Amino acid sequence: MSHLVAPSILSADFANLLPACELINTSKADYYHIDVMDGVFVPNISFGLPVIKAIKKHATKTFDVHLMIVEPDKYIKDFKAAGADILTVHYEACTHLHRTIQAIKAEGMKAGVALNPHTPIYLLEDIIQDIDLVCLMSVNPGFGGQSYIENTYNKIKDLKALITRKNSTALIEIDGGVSNKNAAELVACGADVLVAGSYVFGSDQPEKTIEGLKELKF
Predict the structure, then answer these.
(1) Cβ contact 29:63 at 8 Å
(2) Contact partners, residue 141, CB within 8 Å, separation at least 6
(3) Fold of the CATH domain 4-215
(4) Domain residue spans in the chain?
(5) Which residue of 32, 103, 128, 213 is most buried, as measured by CB atoms within 10 A?
(6) How far apart are CA 77 and CA 169, in angstroms?
(7) Which residues are annotated as a binding site for substrate?
(8) Where is substrate bound in this sequence (predicted)?
(9) Which residues are the active-site residues?
């Protein structure tokens, strides 16, 4: 499988989200990446369910929703109703992670688990076979436009080894600081999904920028 590209709406112009949707729809992107922040789990607030529902009306591609919130279990059904196809929760926010993953799948969504930069891969040892996607944070979550953390390359390799050893089908997603400077190496290390926010929406030619990430031609 060739790698996937998921532009992050967090970096779009919130006053003009329809053009951002049209851009993603017509580009070579595979997913919409939707970051939901509550101001508690991370020191920022993004947008909530009404905005996600509005975006969904115009979206033609997979909705990859990343919850950076406390107590995500309370909102699983709500995010399904809002249009999530993949729902990713943070390992650090879930006391009973297996139960949370079961609840997400019971609603017909794919289940993802995100790890903060300081969280080691081995903590997924007992649950990797139940996960559809692992989102490795390659910046500290909360704000777009941060610098990529170099140790992520090693984490990808460790995660890939765990997935292979456990016969898991989980995809490896990288979120934070993805650009033409590291995309090729991320994929070479084993990344399956590249999330890009400011690199795409800060570009003069965002559609070509997405194409470059997809084809790894810069």
Answers:
(1) no
(2) 37, 41, 42, 68, 90, 114, 116, 176
(3) TIM Barrel (3.20.20)
(4) 4-215
(5) 213
(6) 24
(7) 8, 66, 142-145, 175-177, 197-198
(8) 8, 66, 142-145, 175-177, 197-198
(9) 35, 175
143-162 average pLDDT score: 90
Give the residue carrying structure tokens 């989980």: 170
Q: DSSP characters for 9-68? A: GGGS-TT-HHHHHHHHHHSS--EEEEEEEBSSSSS-B---HHHHHHHHTT--SEEEEEEE
pTM of the model: 0.96
Q: Which amino acid is at 57?
A: K
pLDDT digits (tens, 9 = 90+) for 70-114: 999 999 999 999 999 999 999 999 999 999 999 999 999 999 999
Vertex 169: Cα angle to 165 and 175 (nearest 5): 100
- In this predicted model, what pLDDT tens digit does every residue of 116-141 receive, in sequence order? 999 999 999 999 999 999 999 999 87
Percent of the chain with pLDDT over 90: 94
